[in-house]
Structure formats: structure tokens, C-alpha cells
Amino acid sequence: MFKAASLGRAVVGCRDVLQGLVKCRQMGTNSKTKLRKILVVSKLTRLEFEKTRDHCLNDEKLELKIRNRGSDYDAMKYYHHLHKDVEEEVVKSFREAGVEVKVINRLTLNNDILRWADLLVPIGGDGTFLLAAGRASPFMLDRVKMTPVVGFNSDPRRSEGRLMLPKYFSTNIEEAVRRILSGDFKWMRRSRIRITLIGSDTTKRPPPIDLHEYHSSMMEHKEVDDPTVESNNRILPYLALNEVFIGEMLSARVSHLHLQLDNSDVVTKTKSSGLCVSTGTGSTSWLTSMNRLSTSNVKDLIEIIKRRTGELNGIDHEAIAEEYNQNLVFPADDLRLCYSIREQICVGVWPNPKGLESKGFVKQLKVKSRCIDASLVIDGSIAYNFNDGAKALLEVHPEDALLTIDMD
């Protein structure tokens, strides 16, 4: 169980450590600022991944191996070239405008090259955007100003790419580059989740795990400690743009978590399939997926109400489901967090005490683990061990927002 007083002192201590960094951080929202150095973060295509995994094979042998296992090599090659065509057009457009451009991917990403850039330009889908944004945290780069991120969707037919520029710019790249360099856009800030591990043992710090198996080397990461706080709290270097998930790694195992909402002293013990804490940006993805109502769900509910009341004829089930699902989404710059407890057990003594809703908004959330083999996962990519006794504070700070642009 959390001790409110010690937790409060710990959090204040961690904030004091970051105060200098936060005060000197400039958001760089002057759209007329000259961009001189562009870093393109390119998606690692499936074909490139296959070549990396079997680097000893030449192209012919690799193709034979892929075909023999039943995979569609022709489609793999087609989408690889489709992505590369967009990448080449973006690089060409920036260079012709007199801007220095470097190109990296997941395997060649490092902190030095990230510090070099004035602007990060992920090319691919939302996963590539999250990669670029997550590795560009000011806690990792020690940047005086926030590095903006703006992305191009390289396959708008198969990828929704909500974090990227509108799909129109996938085929009108020169226009997008012109508008970026001339400042013809609006700045957009996307709130991110700051995670503080409470009472972490500094002598037992396993590195974070990158869940993408083709990431051959771990990113550099630094963690912020407050030497004046006995509990050795640490703020993780990664900020979550979409969501933080906490739960057992084995999906069939029940996740046992203790939760405290906002500044409440009430600790609620829960059992579920895990906890998802989302930003407004992430509310369009996993949060909506786990809470959405299908048309058949609405139809079943309406039929029950109709049997009980004898009314509600002529109801448009599809329209009701669509409106409900749209209401799950909230603004990207919202300073609140939306927590969602997946398949919360609500029988017998659980949750204890009763009354905790499975979904709701909070300013901050404190979580304690009673799990066996659990992880705290940031944006579906970076995982930290979060087993029995581990504690975390999740909150949003305005100065942590990701700076991107809006050209809708």
C-alpha cells in the first residue's frame, strides 16, 4: 500500500531534479524558424527485416526461402519499393530546398544523430512515428528545445496513419515540404505520459526491453534520479505518446494491481487482463478498440430495453454505436489521462473496495504491482519489468508535450 506522505515527498523531489531542464526547455513554436537539418526516420520494411535476419543469404536464396515458407515475396518486394519511392521523394524535396538531410531507420537510430536534427521526419506508418517521437524525449537528448516531429504516410492504402500528415500529402510531397519550410501550418502539441518509478532499487536496474525483435541493439537511455530522496525514485526517459500498458506478459494470467486515482488515499485492489492508460492521441487506437461497442452490442441492448419498456422502435443501431465510439476519443492536447481496466473482475470481493469504474479520466494515477511476470509497456515498444512490489506514478506535464504540425 502506498504511503501518501512519503510518496508526495518523493514526487516533489523528482520534480525538483527536473526543474532546471524544464525551465530552459523551449518549445520552438516559431513557424518561421529556419530548418537546416532534417532527420528522416524511415520505416524498416518487411523485406529489409528479412535481409537483416538472414544477412548471410544473397537475394536469390532469400527469395527462395521466403517463398518456400509460403510468404508472398512479390507483395513484400512491391511494398518495399512503394515505401522507398516516398522516402526518396521526401529526401529529394528537402535537399532541393537547400536543407541538409540524413536518413536512418530503427537499426541505425542513436542519440547523437537525434540531437543533430532540427526536425524529425518519420516515413512509414504510426509505428514509425511513435519510434521517432519516443526516442526524441528531451530526458534522453538533453535538448534545450523540443524537437518537432512531422511524418509522411508511405502506404496510405493499407495504413491509417493518424499521426502522419493527411494522406493527400503522400502524393503531394513537394507541396508539404514547401509548406513546412515556409511555416504554412499550425503547431500542434500532443500530451505525453511521464512515468516515475517509485522506490526503485538503483542496484537492480535491468535495461528496458525493446519489444521489436529486429532491433539489434538497445537505445541509449538515461534515468533521472533525485539523490535527496531515500527511495531512489526515477523518471523514465521515455514519454508515452499513445498509452502505457501494465499487466502480466502471459495474457492468460490475471493481472493483480493496486490503483490510486488522483490524490485519493483510497487504494483499490483489482484483478483484470491489465491496465491501459491513454492520452488523447492514443484514444483513437487501443483505448477505443478495447471499449468500443459494435452494432450488434447496441442492437442487443435496445432489444432488452424494448422488452422492458415496449418502446424504442425505429432506432438506428449503427448510428448509436458510431456515436458512442466517437465519444471515446478526446483531444490530443488534453492534460487528462483516460485509464481503462481490461476485463476487470467484478464478482465476489473484486474490486476491493467496490465502486471503481473500469474506465475513467484522471489527472494522475498511481499503480502498485502484485503480479508475477509483468511489464510496464510504453507505446507498445519499450517494456520495463513491473513485478510484485513495483510502484509507478503516471501523469501529464504540459512541458512534456510532443510538438508536431497540423496541415489539415
Keywords:
7-stranded antiparallel beta sheet, alpha+beta, 23% strand, 408 residues
Report on the architecture of this protein.
There is one protein chain. By secondary structure, this protein is of the alpha+beta class. Helix content is 30%, strand content 23%. The strands form four sheets. It has a seven-stranded antiparallel sheet, with helices on one face. A hairpin with a 6-residue loop joins strand 11 and strand 12. Helix 4 packs parallel to helix 8. The protein starts with a helix and ends with a strand.
Topology:
Elements: H1 4-24, E1 37-42, H2 46-53, H3 59-68, H4 73-96, E2 100-105, H5 111-116, E3 119-124, H6 126-135, H7 138-141, E4 152-153, H8 173-182, E5 186-190, E6 193-198, E7 209-210, E8 224-225, E9 234-235, E10 243-248, E11 255-261, E12 268-272, E13 275-278, H9 286-291, H10 295-309, H11 317-326, E14 337-341, E15 359-362, E16 364-369, E17 374-378, E18 382-385, E19 391-396, E20 402-406
Entry summary:
The protein has 408 residues and is an alpha+beta fold.
